[in-house]
Structures are given as structure tokens and as C-alpha cells.
Input
Amino acid sequence: MKENIVKVGIVQQACSSDREVSIATSIEAIKACKQQGAELVILQELHTSPYFCQTENTEVFDLAKPIPGEDTELFSKVAKENNVVLVTSLFERRAAGLYHNTAVVFEKDGSTAGKYRKMHIPDDPAYYEKFYFTPGDLGFEPIQTSVGKLGVLVCWDQWYPEAARLMALKGADILIYPTAIGWDAAEPKEEQLRQNEAWKLVQRGHAVANGLPLVSVNRTGFEADPSGVTKGIPFWGDSFICGPQGEILLQAPQDVAFTGVAQVSLSRSEEVRRIWPFLRDRRIEAYHGLTKRYLE
Amino acid sequence: MKENIVKVGIVQQACSSDREVSIATSIEAIKACKQQGAELVILQELHTSPYFCQTENTEVFDLAKPIPGEDTELFSKVAKENNVVLVTSLFERRAAGLYHNTAVVFEKDGSTAGKYRKMHIPDDPAYYEKFYFTPGDLGFEPIQTSVGKLGVLVCWDQWYPEAARLMALKGADILIYPTAIGWDAAEPKEEQLRQNEAWKLVQRGHAVANGLPLVSVNRTGFEADPSGVTKGIPFWGDSFICGPQGEILLQAPQDVAFTGVAQVSLSRSEEVRRIWPFLRDRRIEAYHGLTKRYLE
Output
């Protein structure tokens, strides 16, 4: 079996309310990844701005851009200049009153490999995403690139085994989650620890259940609540890459920006799935309840 | 919100080829759990015998018993004597040439609360279960008991997010996995560590994804391969109970028998699911692919 290693770079950053600064920070980090040999670079969720969903404010929709448009032109150029496959996470203006949280993947030559519109949309205090984002309508389709078939999902999707499984069943070689998650500063420390650990566990669990490597890229830094209602969000960083047994290959810190590259074997999945052939034994005739809201 | 705590006991044991010894060991441990206040006690997979699936041998079918039958009469009595809800894992003879790996749950009064026939059946070198067990035909149905609705699954099921989710959608209060898993003694140490960690990760991930506590009870001790083909299985113990954020509540050691009791809050799930309401946002209209073998 021929080994297939991809060098994967991740960019965990703190975002500025100055768009130009946030973008410049991403570009510098992409270059740093390239210098470390990265062929695939993954940015965090909504990396061109602070996480604007802490309040519901109609003026925020000004940040959204059409796809293709200003943002995709810019990152297409960055992908081409660095000769990397680039996973971005953008605020898409599709029409007046119709916006999505959309990951766009660029090929090494700057062409668009594909896009994914976030399917699962959260809505919790300080994460008012249902106000901003229409749930995705492109389904769970991996994006074919020159480095492999990328199962790109976004943030809240990371809690859903269904999303990871569907990407695996469609032949994804790797699961990828740009994300933006942090603590409620008002929560006690032990609850904060449980939440952070739960976030890692569920994603590493998807890697295991599907025999796939997984990349999760989260933002870091504190962002105040513009409405002053909450104490703001300390984003918890902790971006990581794990292999198909959930084993950690690269671990970012929590409190500071981080750029790093790991060697990820896409052929290791073949070995792992031969030992633990979960796909062989799925009881698909007994799974119809999964398409129901609840079964009581 | 009224707190609902259940004291859950687990019995991790090494099994003897002398059936009477294996059963006596279980009974002693159930009594010890009761003395520590347990209302619910969970035994490991196929606790009345060594793990007989290391070889394919037709004489092994002699171990199977009808349900109801000798085994259920015995454990019904044990449940009643100890006034506990008891989760057992039995080799069921349903008809000549038709056998199942079946968990039977007894009420505190010794009545049968319900049974679950293992749905996902593995088959790997030293785990020749497809020879012995017909895949279950009772679906994923939690079992109602006086201590809650038990989402009882068995061993190989533990790798399947679908099984855990279906139990959750049917109102399970807790996920329960009697299991029998160990290392291939021929594997290098680092692979052994990855496998053991993957096993914990995927189950704790199910707890998180479904906001449910989870109990996994594994056997311990070395069992030789009767055929002499492999080096036998050192079962890795490591039974555990975790809460709905995957947080460890009770952790057994790997190499020795263990009996222990933990306080498990069934009402904590209500709190956790209010913070992280994953069930609210499932994209059920986009999940039909989950009922397919593969999507390429």
C-alpha cells in the first residue's frame, strides 16, 4: 500500500475588528505554513472579522460578500501565490435577506474547488447564528482537491455524528472543521473544563467512528460582547489535528495564536479500517429512525 | 428541576472456564455493589464464560441457553435477592442453528424488564462473532426500568454513532455497553495504546453527542486462544462511567477485576441539552444517506 502523506497547516488566530488586519494576519500565517511545507492550509471560522454573532444587529450584514466576490477573489489569489489548497470560512451574501456561513475551498492554482454551506446552525446566548445564517442547502458533499477529498464541515456541525458519517460515506479522505467556540466567562471553571473536553472528545470520536483523520481550527483571543449583555467570549483555541484512531498529531495552545503543520497520512485510514471495519457492519435497514426528529 | 441520581454499579471481572466460578464471581460482585448502594448493576459481555469467539468451534454452541431459561432464571433470582436492576449479557439459543448475543435486563423484583439482541456483529481474527451470533432483530429499543430507560447496546455497537443516536431518539436516559475487548498481544505498544484510547474516545463521544451518561463494562484478564493460532487476548478492562459531557465519573483499572459504584445524575442531561441543544438542530431532511451502505 503506497503511503499518502499530506502536510496540513492550521491557522489559529485572534481576529481584529479591522478587516484588513485580520486578513493580513491570515495571509502571513498561510505563508508561514507554506514555508513549513504545507500543501493544505485551513483557516478558522469567519476569519476575516470578530465573531459577530454575539448580538443580533442588522448592520452586521454589511460584512457579507457575494460568492464569487471580493473575499473569494482575495483568497483565490492567496492560494495561488502560496501554491496551497486553502480552506476558508466566509460570510456569504446570497441575496438580500439570505446569507450563509460558507466554507470555500481553493485549489493550488487559485481556482475554486468547491464550497460548503454550514448545515447545522446554532442559537445560544452569545451565539445568535440563526439570525444571521440560513441553514445550508448543499448537503454534506466532500470537496475534491488535488490533495484529497475534503469533508469540510463548520463549527456546530462538529457535534453531529450524522454529518461526519455522511462525509465518510461520500468518500471523504479527511474531516475538516473551521470553528469559533469559547467559554461563557460567567461559568465556573470546572464547567469550562468539561465543555472544552467535550468539544475535543466528540470530534476525536468522529475520527474514530469513521476511520478518518480530522482537523479542527478554532479562534483564540477574547472578544467583548458589543451589546454588553454578557461578559464576552474568551475563544478557547485548542485547534488540533488527529489521526483515524483519534490520536493527536498536532495540538495548538488555548490562549495564543498558533500556526503549525503536521504530516497527515490519508492512507492510514485504509489500514485502520481493515482492523476495525465499521462500515462493513452498519445495520442500514435499522437506521431509518435517524431521519426522524424524535422517536417517542 | 428535581435531581435524579441513580447509583450505578459495574462488575469488571476475569472469567473462568468453570461456569460456576464465573457466575459465583459475578454474584459476589453484585452483592458488593449492592452494599455500596447500587440500584443498577451492569455486568460485562458474556460474563458466564471465557470469550469463546477466539475460534470457530461448533461445540461452543452447547454454552447457549434459551431465553427464558437456565441463565435468566438464575440472574432473575440474583436481581431479586439484591433488589437491583441488573443488566446481564447472555449467549441465547433461539433455535437449532440460530443464536444471539443478548443482553437481558431484570427488574428489582426479578421480573424481566426487556432484552436487546446485539445488532452489530464483528468478525476479526480472534473475534469470530459472525460464526456464533445472528445479528439482532429487535432494533434499537431502550428498556424501561424502575431506575430509568436503559439504552443497552453490546460491544461492537459501541463504535456506531447510529446506535447511540437511535437509543437517544427513543428516549434512553443512559447508554450502557457490556463489552469484551482487548489487545492483539502481537501489536506494538503504541498501536495498543491508540486502540485503547480510540475505544474510550468514541464512547465518550457518544455521551457528548447525545447528552447522555454512559456506562461501559469490559472484561479483564488474559485468555489464551484455544486453537493456538494467535497469542490470545489480554482483555483491557478500563471499564468506565461518564457523564453527558463525556466527563469520567468512575474509572476501573486495566489489569485487575474491579467492582465499583458511581452516582449518575439522569437529570444532568436536561441541563446539558439546554446548553447544547443538538437534538433541536438535526438536519433530518438531509440524513437519508445514513440508510445507505455507501454513497459513491
About this structure: The mean pLDDT of chain B is 97. DSSP finds six helices and 14 strands in chain B.
